[in-house]
User: Which sequence fits this backbone?
């Protein structure tokens, strides 16, 4: 027996309502600001290494799509072209040497081309570029990555990055220190020495280049050079504990003059904090003695 007409009608209305609700939810997600930005490739921001990573990814992605289209095209063509009528026995085909050699050599050639393209892009991703003409004159004294050349010229900012549950600590060569938010000058090559104080973390600001693991007892190194000001956000990309989701990171890029003002302000805050600690220590010693 079928459902009563009234019950069946309500069921159809409920199904239609749920379908419309699902479509509306999907549309809201897709139309949200930035929802489809860099949906199929890494984010590319104002740093050469990030742009090169994004471009290389797209080249490999398009090549993969071409291979899929070719394979599926041949498959469906064969299904239609060589189909047999119902009841007939399909012919037994032993193989096609020329065709098998063709797709084997073709796959090998494609892999070789992808390897060559990757090698051509690798230096621009791995090796730091020179700072711009307006960059602050600061000798980093360290290479941007193991077994790689130092940034060309003598103007690069070297920052030590330390991850710990659940924040990032940045130590600058000029004596400034900050947490969570890294501040750098525009158009200056920034080299990073990345480590961790407790468990494994992973430093990643997508628009400023690839991610780099932060491992206790090991220093990994990377670089970026932001050519425009702004705030660029990232996230620890290695599960590091209960509050991993809240271990975010930011890089704030300022004009060189604004950066110098920020450094001066940070030094003043550090000095004030040190004086306050000394004052509290003396008070504690006086009361405990």
Assistant:
């Amino acid at each position: 027996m079928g459902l009563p007409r009234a019950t069946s009608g309500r069921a159809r209305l409920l199904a239609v309502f749920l379908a419309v609700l699902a479509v509306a939810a999907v549309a809201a997600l897709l139309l949200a600001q930035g929802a489809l930005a860099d949906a199929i490739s890494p984010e590319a921001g104002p740093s050469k290494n990030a742009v090169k990573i994004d471009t290389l990814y797209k080249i490999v992605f398009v090549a993969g799509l071409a291979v899929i289209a070719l394979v599926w095209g041949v498959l469906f063509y064969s299904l239609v072209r060589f189909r047999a009528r119902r009841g007939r026995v399909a012919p037994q085909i032993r193989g096609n040497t020329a065709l098998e050699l063709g797709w084997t050599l073709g796959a090998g050639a494609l892999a070789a081309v992808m390897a060559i393209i990757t090698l051509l892009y690798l230096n621009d991703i791995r090796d730091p570029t020179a700072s711009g003409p307006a960059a602050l004159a600061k000798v980093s004294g360290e290479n941007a990555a193991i077994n790689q050349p130092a940034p060309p010229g003598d103007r690069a900012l070297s920052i030590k990055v330390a991850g710990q549950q659940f924040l990032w600590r940045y130590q600058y060569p000029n004596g400034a220190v900050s947490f969570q938010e890294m501040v750098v000058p525009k158009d200056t090559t920034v080299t990073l020495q990345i480590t961790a104080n407790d468990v494994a973390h992973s430093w990643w600001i997508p628009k400023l280049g690839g991610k780099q693991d932060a491992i206790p007892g090991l220093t990994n190194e990377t670089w970026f050079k932001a050519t425009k000001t702004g705030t660029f956000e990232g996230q620890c990309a290695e599960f590091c504990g209960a509050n991993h989701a809240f271990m975010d990171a930011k890089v704030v890029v300022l004009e060189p003059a604004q950066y110098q003002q920020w450094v001066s302000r940070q030094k003043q805050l550090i000095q004030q904090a040190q004086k306050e600690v000394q004052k509290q220590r003396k008070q504690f010693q006086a009361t405990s003695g």
In short: The first strand starts at residue 156 and ends at 164. Residues 48-84+99-126 form one domain. Strands lie at 156-164, 167-171, 177-179, 181-185, 189-196, 201-203, 212-214, 220-224, 230-235, 248-254.
